[in-house]
Amino acid sequence: MSLYSTLRPIVFAIDAEKAHRATITSLRLRPGGRRPKASPSLATRVAGLDFPTPIGLAAGFDKDAQVPDAMLDLGFGFVEVGTLTPQPQAGNPRPRLFRLAADEAVINRMGFNNGGQAAALERLLRRRGRPGIVGVNIGANKDAADRIADYATGVTVMRGVASYLTVNISSPNTPGLRALQSRTALDELLCAVVEARGRQGPPIFLKVAPDLEASDIDDIAEVSLRRRMDALIVSNTTISRPPLASAEAVEAGGLSGAPLHDLALRRLIDFRAATAGHIPLIAAGGIATADQAYARILAGASLVQLYSALVYQGPGLARRLAADLATLLERDGFAHVGDAVGQG
Q1: Segments forming the whole domain that contains residue 267
Q2: Active site residues
C-alpha cells in the first residue's frame, strides 16, 4: 500500500478545493529534486518539441503556473498550466469542485478562476532557461466583449514563455464558450491566434470537447488542418452523465475521470479518422493506467494527459505510468513510443 493510499481518507475529509489549494502550497514549498530518467523508448518528438515521455499533466491542476517544475520533478514528461485569462477572475460561486469517489471521477464548474496572465507571466519568466516542456493553456474572460480578441491577447502575452500554447474553447463552465467550436467562429479564432503567434512563436494546440456530433468533428478537423494547428487535444470534460453511483453526480459542471474514458477514446478515434493522421493528437480524459495510456497511443495519440487520476492515485502516478508504458512497448516490440502511434 502506498503512502498516498494511507493518507487519502484524510485528504478526502477536506473540501476538494481546499485540499487542492493545500496541495499547490505544499508543492511550492517542496525543494527541487532530480528528475527521474525515463526509458529512452518513451522519448518522442511532437510539433517540433522533444518530450522525454508522452505522459503529461493536463491543464486545470496548476491554473496559475505556480508549480510546473515540481510536477516535472514528479515524472511528468510535460506540464500544461492554466487556463489563464487576460484579466484575473474569481470564477463561479463555491462549492464548484466535487469528488465522486464511488466513480473515481470529478465534477468541476470552476469557471476559469485564475490570477490573470500578467501574474503568471512573471512566474514563467523566472523559470526561463530551466529544462522541461511547459505549455500554457489560454482562455477568454467570462465578461469579455470580444472573446476572440482575448485569445489573441493571450497568445501575444504568453508566446515568449510557453513551450506551446493551448487554445481552450471546450470548457463547459463559461457560458457560450463552446460556440467557438462552430466552423465560422473557429476559423475566425484560429486565424487570429495564428496571426498573433507570428512566424517564430510556439506551436499552437486546440483543445476540443468530447460532446460533439459527427458534423462538428468534421468541421473542427477541416478548419484545424487549414489553419495548420500543431496538435489537437481530445478532449475536455463532458456535460453528459453516464450512469454514476455517487450522490454528487447531480452537480452541474464538467465530468472527468474514469466515467469519461469511453467517450474520450471514441472522440480520439473520430478525430484520427477525420484528420487522417495529418495533425498530432493528444489524448485526455479518463486515463489512469499505463494500459489505458497505451490504448490511446495505439488509437492515434502521440501524447496523453491526465489530471483527475491524481486525485485517486496520488503523486507517484506519472512515474508508475512511464515505467509500465515502457514495459508494454518492449512487450510488443516497439523500440520507440512514436512507432506505436495509430497501430491499434
Answers
A1: 3-340
A2: 171
